[in-house]
Amino acid sequence: MSNITIITDSTCDLTPEIIKEKNIVVLPLYVNFSFASYKDGEGITTDQLYKLVEEHNELPKTAAISVADFIEAFTKYINDGNEIIYGGISSAMSRTYENALLAAKEVNEEKIHIIDAANLSTGIGLQILKACKYRDDGKSAKEIVELMNKNVSLVKSQFAIETMEYLHKGGRCSGIARFFGSLLKIKPIIVVRDGKMSVGKMPHGKMKVALDAMLKMIADDKDNVDLDNIIITHSMADSYADYLIPKVKEMFKEANVFPTNAGCVISSHCGKGTIGILYMLKK
After folding, report:
1. What tens digit of pLDDT does each residue of 76-113 get?
2. Of 193 and 115, which is predicted with more confidence?
3. CA–CA dist 269, 60 (Å, integer)
C-alpha cells in the first residue's frame, strides 16, 4: 500500500466515484453569500447555488482554502506516516496555492509537496488522475512531483460560456461587453493557458457554433492528445454534453471520455450552461 496521499481542492470537478476509487483527498474552497457561507461540494450543490443566486439576486464570492484548513488536513496524513502531494487551483486565480505553501512550512515541508496546477476545474483533475496513476505504478513522491511539474504545461482547458451574465455580475466583463455580447449572441470560449484565463475565440450564434469550435480545437491536436482521459465538464448543461461526448468518442475511439459536473466555485464564475472539453497533450 502506497504511503503517498494525493490531495487536491474542490475546483478539480472530479466525480465522487472517481475520487473514492482513486483514493483522492479533496479539500473544499468556500462559497460566500452575504447571508451564509458554504463549503464547496459539502454544504451546497450547484443546483442550489443557482437557486440562491436567483432568489437573492446576489452572486456569491469565492474564497480560498485557509491556512488553518490545510494545516488540519496535512497534520492528519503526516501523523499517519504519509508523504503528501497537493495539486490545486492556479496561483494566479486563488490564494489557495499560497496558503498551501504556508501550511506545508508549518507542518512538515520535507514531506509535503505543493504543486501549482496552473489550471482550474478538470484541468486540475487531469493532473491529479495522472498523479494517481504514477502512485499506483509505485513511483516515489519525488518522481511523481517531477512528472507532475512537466505535465502542467500539457493541459488544454477550454470552456464555452452560454451566458455572459455571471461574467458580468462577477466583474469579469463590462456592462457594455455584456450588452454587445447578448446583442450579437456571442458565446465566448474561455481558455486556460499558463495559469490564466483569456478569451480564445468569440463565436456568435447558437451554442452549437461554440461547441463545434471546441471540437475543432481538440481535432487540431488529434495526433498529440493523451488518451488516458478526455473530460467533458459542464455546469448543468447535460444536452450540450450529450452532443459533445459521442463526437469526441468517435474522434478518439481508444480514449477514456467521460463527463463531470462543475462544482459551485467554478459555476459561480461561469454560470449555468457552461461546458468545456479538457485534455492533456502527449508532449
Report:
1. 999 999 999 999 999 999 999 999 999 999 999 999 99
2. 115
3. 9
Integer-rounded Cα Rg, in Å, for the chain is 19
As a whole number of angstroms, the distance between CA 143 and CA 141 comes to: 5
The position carrying cell 505553501 is 101
Percent of the chain at pLDDT above 90?
Answer: 81
Give the DSSP letter of residue 67: H
DSSP for 48-76? HHHHHHHHHT-PPEEEPPPHHHHHHHHHH
Question: Considering only CA atoms, which of 196, 152, 136, 166 is closest in space to residue 262?
Answer: 166
Average pLDDT score over the chain: 92
Residue 278 pLDDT greater than 80, yes or no: yes
Q: Which of 27, 245, 280 shows the shortest CA–CA distance to 133?
A: 280
In angstroms, the CA 100 to CA 91 distance is 10
Q: How many CB atoms lie within 10 A of CB 99?
A: 20
Determine contact, residues 99/67, Cβ cutoff 8 Å: yes
